[in-house]
């Protein structure tokens, strides 16, 4: 759903795959190695199902889509050694991506060799909380095919295009954009430690929206862009509407 023709060699951007009705199935980073190779770094979706869907649109015999289960990803909360913003570092050792913001640097490294780094549950939760605080939805199975890119505020990450050629769901995305019909977007709600994806967000007895992703005491929810200045609750617990952070667009 993004315009990959604008990428130069070694550059990456956010993108995704939609249903014909314009609902988000998967979110991923698209990295261009060269004119002959693109990598998709898939966040949460079933990569085999995604590859199968993409293969339906392959019309040239020289194009192949492969799932690489032999690539190992590790992350650290530290600045990249070489990569910067949308420019990756690619060499024989692997791929380094700048997966952070100016205020909170992070690095994602992918290699074909398992570095045997132990999983750190606290660090993984902090990683997911960063994504949510910056408006990158982490879509569990029951939240896929539910939301349009505009409802997920993905224009903030420059993750979709309304000007490129046709793609599944493009008509819905473009119509919503050009007719100004986007009425809902993302909000970060704090102190939602017991929230679950799919739960209602209410003000009093009125349902305003639903939770999309959670991480610790943070919840990412789709809410009306224009809503009453009134207390919000999830599961009867008051939550605080917190501004989305910038610095993660590519």
List strands and helices in order, with pairings.
Layout: E1 12-18, E2 24-34, E3 37-42, H1 47-55, E4 72-76, E5 89-91, E6 94-98, E7 107-111, H2 121-133, H3 170-178, E8 184-190, E9 200-203, E10 206-215, E11 218-224, E12 232-234, E13 237-242
Report the radius of gyration as a whole number of Å. Answer: 19 Å
Order of helices and strands: EEEHEEEEHHEEEEEE
According to CATH, the homologous superfamily of the domain at 4-139 is Probable tRNA modification gtpase trme, domain 1
Number of helices: 3
Percent helix range: 10-25%
Structural class: mainly beta
Question: Could you say which overall geometry the principal axes of the C-alpha atoms support?
Answer: globular
Q: Which CATH class of the domain at 4-139?
A: Alpha Beta
Give me the CATH fold name of the domain at 4-139: Gyrase A, domain 2
Q: Which spans of ≥5 residues are poorly predicted at pLDDT below 50?
A: none
End-to-end CA span: 14 Å
User: What's the rounded overall pLDDT mean?
Assistant: 95
Q: Indicate the proportion of strand residues.
A: 25-35%
Strand order of the largest sheet: 8-11-10-9-12-13
Major β-sheet annotation: 6 strands, antiparallel, barrel
- State the CATH architecture of the domain at 4-139: 2-Layer Sandwich
Number of strands: 13
Can you give a write-up of this model?
This protein has a domain of 136 residues: 2-Layer Sandwich (Gyrase A, domain 2). Helix content is 12%, strand content 32%. The strands form three sheets. A six-stranded antiparallel beta barrel has the order 8-11-10-9-12-13. The chain has a four-stranded antiparallel sheet with strand order 4-7-6-5, with no helix packed on it. The mean pLDDT is 95. This is Folate-binding protein.
């Amino acid at each position: 759903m993004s315009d990959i023709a604008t990428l130069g060699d070694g550059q990456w951007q956010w993108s995704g795959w939609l249903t014909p009705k314009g609902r988000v199935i998967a979110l991923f980073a698209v990295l261009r190695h060269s004119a002959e190779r693109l990598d998709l770094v898939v966040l949460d979706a079933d990569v085999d199902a995604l590859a199968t869907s993409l293969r339906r649109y392959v019309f040239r015999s020289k194009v192949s889509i492969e799932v690489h289960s032999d690539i190992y990803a590790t992350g650290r909360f530290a600045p990249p050694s070489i990569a910067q913003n949308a420019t990756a570092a690619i060499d024989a050792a692997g791929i380094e991506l700048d997966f952070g913001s100016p205020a909170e640097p992070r690095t994602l490294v992918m290699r074909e060799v398992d570095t045997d780094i132990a999983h750190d549950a606290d660090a993984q939760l902090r990683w997911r909380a960063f994504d949510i605080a910056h408006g990158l939805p982490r879509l569990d199975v029951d939240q896929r095919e539910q939301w349009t890119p505009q409802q997920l505020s993905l224009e903030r990450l420059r993750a979709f295009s309304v000007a490129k050629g046709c793609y599944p769901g493009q008509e819905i995305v473009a119509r919503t954009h050009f007719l100004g019909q986007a009425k809902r977007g993302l909000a970060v709600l704090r102190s939602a430690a017991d929230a679950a994806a799919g739960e209602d967000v209410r003000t009093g007895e009125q349902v305003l929206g639903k939770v999309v992703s959670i991480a610790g005491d943070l919840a990412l929810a789709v809410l009306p862009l224009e809503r009453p200045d009134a207390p919000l609750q999830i599961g009867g617990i008051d939550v605080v509407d917190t501004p989305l952070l910038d610095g993660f667009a590519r």
